[in-house]
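Notebook p. 47: complex prediction with acetoacetyl-coenzyme A.
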Amino acid sequence: MVDFDLTQEQIMVRDLARAFALKDVAPHAHAWDEQSRFPAEAVKKMGELGLMGVAVPSEWGGAGFDTVSYVLAMEEIAAACASTAVTMSVNNSLVCDPLLKFGTDAQKAEWLTPLAEGRKLGCFALSEPASGSDAGAAQCFAELSADGTYYTVNGTKNWITNGPDADVCVLIAVTERGKGNRGMTAFISPMPSEGLTVGAHEKKLGIKASSTSQLVYSNVKIPVSLRLGGVGDGFKVAMTTLDGGRIGIAAQALGIARAAYEASVRYSQERMAFGAPISQLQAIQFKLADMATRLDAARLLTLRAAMLKDQKGRHSKESAMAKLFASEAAMWITTQAIQVFGGNGYVKDFPVERHFRDAKICEIYEGTSEIQRLVIAASALKEVGA
Ligand code: CAA
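Predicted complex, structure tokens below:
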């Protein structure tokens, strides 16, 4: 049976996130974007509200809700500010989630609890200057010491969301050369650390208030006790983590798209042309109808992926479908929103140009749309067969 009703708990989380987003995030989003200013106060408050570890059990400092609740909260925050949303998404999906799944109790107590409580902020480092989509081609190397007590890490990680503001990084590094993606291992890499340099803030097209930088490892020592999962399991840790992360980005795209759609509906009823509000023109109505339909389809795919994650089965295909569809829907909807606004959509007096710039990254990070199609096709070929 398919049940489209949310539980009381899920509604409560959504409403809490919505109230916070409307009061403490939306009024500042334009200024944060203009100034490329990291929303530190909002991130702190999200921690206090349980939004930095939504689906982490309360015994590890989290809010103890499910992935569906996480997705609902993400949509609300992203509708207000996509930068604040990705900060939240990375901490929840790419840091808390692998620590919960692969961490030892000692690692959870030391790292997961403060992250889920929002007292610490995390980042995730997989991509490198010469390897993005081809994650298995990473070069950053972690060499085990002769006495087997620590690793020495050398290499550069790229496009690290939260990098400049993070207290800890989930790092994927090569521990055995020549074995491709079977020679990679995951680590908990504390920040700051001796030898670890955080690069300059990247100047971006959108999500300007989120912080992004390189991480340069130069003889950084990481104790063996901070290895996350088994030796050689790093690629699978990364892929499993991204299966969850892609649901968060789908929800982020959904929030951006919803904000652009709702702004368009409202504007179309105010803006006069040919003696009547433009909402009375079929040309505009058709756009609004297509925006609403794609938005709903994206939401259903995203909620399905979240529900499957909560059921603990593998959901790689469904996460990829949700991210692919939601991010392309967000790009399309924000483009149409600018068209509805006309000249007013092209200037910064209205928020739709920000939504348009923010939407683009959803088609790129945590696996490009092309990578999502590869993941979906791999499942299709397996499921349907010859
Ligand atoms: N779950 C569990 N295991 C998985 C898996 C998954 N989702 N995906 C792959 N694996 C396993 C496979 O089963 C296989 O295992 P065996 O060797 O035991 O058979 C192994 O991993 C290798 O799988 P593939 O042969 O499919 O690997 P590949 O090298 O062909 O790569 C890929 C597949 C899908 C292209 C992958 O490299 C990929 O997802 N690339 C994109 C990387 C990405 O999303 N980067 C985002 C960076 S993070 C970011 O953006 C963060 C931010 O700051 C916002």
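Notes: Residues 90, 94, 124, 126-127, 133, 135-136, 159-161, 181, 235-236, 239-240, 242-243, 316, 365-367, 371, 374-375 surround acetoacetyl-coenzyme A (CB under 6 Å). The longest helix spans residues 234-270.
Next step: compare against the earlier run before touching the bench.
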